[in-house]
């Protein structure tokens, strides 16, 4: 296994940040840690990249123990933290050369690994890093994390605050890096990005809810989901929550996602109820289960 955690726990005072977490990431796998802010994702990353000591448990990265072999691990991993942490007063090229020098290599030596990413920011190589756009900063940070040809790449919420086009491009780059044999552990609060991983761990309140492929997590959802909409969405949510047969009700984009307790649910019956509650232009249709639906169910 490229990454292994066994019963890892970490607390900050009375706050349990990571609670008895165990999982493994195979060599060459793109594995996602999916969960909201405060779930414990960044603490896990800091433990695995030897920046933080766990209170309990054992973890290894690329076959090295995160406590005993911390110096060796730092030569074998690339880490891109959630906050942009490069030198903002240095130019794009100066940042890249600086990190290459730290690891005893050069841009030229490992250029093939970063070429697909770097050519997009090369026209701005003389621009200071602090003056780059959000998407360009992410590409520079990824290039710096890769310049020493790591075996394992840690990306902590790499697309947070980045525009949708840059997000899409970033994930395409990750897929290409995976094809080169790099193991990637990525965290994100975006449920739509979960489907792009080989396997995911859903995490909430310091605990793992489930680990599986995105497809299998969706497949295990126990209910049929319906998109519901009306002219007054706020009152619609209130009315659905009052309905005696409701199982779950929560906003989802332009709709409300509704599930019913009964297996023989009839949408027409729900529509009649909502009309009596004063709702107009009611729309009810079955829809596909998403990772977000599965997460909401597991987090109950």
- The helicity comes to 25-40%
Q: Which parts are unreliable, with pLDDT below 50 for 5 consecutive residues or more?
A: none
The secondary-structure class comes to: alpha/beta
Topology as H/E string?
A: EEEHEEHEHHHEHEHEEHEHEEHEH
Radius of gyration, in angstroms, nearest whole number: 23 Å
What general form does the structure show? elongated
- Measured between the Cα atoms of the first and last residue, the distance is 32 Å
- Our count of helices gives 11
How large is the share of residues in beta strands? Answer: 25-35%
Number of strands: 14
As an assembly, this protein is: single chain
Strands ordered across the widest β-sheet: 6-7-8-3-9-10
Largest sheet: 6 strands, mixed
Mean pLDDT: 94
Care to give the gist of this entry?
This protein is an alpha/beta fold. The chain has 11 helices and 14 strands.
Please give the structural blueprint.
Elements lengths: L2 E10 L2 E11 L4 E5 L6 H8 L7 E6 L2 E2 L4 H7 E4 L11 H11 L8 H11 L12 H13 L5 E5 L7 H16 L3 E6 L2 H4 L4 E6 L2 E6 L1 H6 L5 E5 L3 H10 L3 E7 L2 E6 L6 H10 L6 E5 L3 H8 L2
Helix pairs in contact: 3-5, 4-5
Structure description:
The protein has 300 residues and is α/β, with parallel strands linked by helices. Helices cover 35% and strands 28% of the residues. It has 11 helices and 14 strands. The strands form 3 sheets. It has a 6-stranded mixed β-sheet with strand order 6-7-8-3-9-10, sandwiched between helices. Strands 2-1-4-5 form a 4-stranded antiparallel β-sheet, with helices on one face. Strands 12-13-11-14 form a 4-stranded antiparallel β-sheet, with helices on one face. The radius of gyration is 23 Å and the shape is elongated. The mean pLDDT is 94.
